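Moderator note: this is an archived Q&A kept for reference. The question asked for a predicted structure of one protein chain; the sequence and the answer are reproduced below.
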Amino acid sequence: MVSKKVTVNLKQGLHMRPASVFVNQMATFASEITITVSDKTLNAKSIMNVLGAGIKFGTEIVISANGSDEQTALDTAVDFVMTEFE
């Protein structure tokens, strides 16, 4: 298992459109991917979980991945939330 604490750099946070793109990217990995925010851990492959978390700009989260492609999954997730979504 690998994990990393990051601060969300998406100006709009993970609202509908970026959350959808994020979840679709995470679904391509075999690993289990989770996001922990405010002591709540959620499935990063579930649009309802990601949207329900209300992750806004500046929120500190921990992204974790566990599985055969965990490092690539973690790197992709971190890059996504650290880069401005277009």
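Archived answer notes: The first strand starts at residue 2 and ends at 7.
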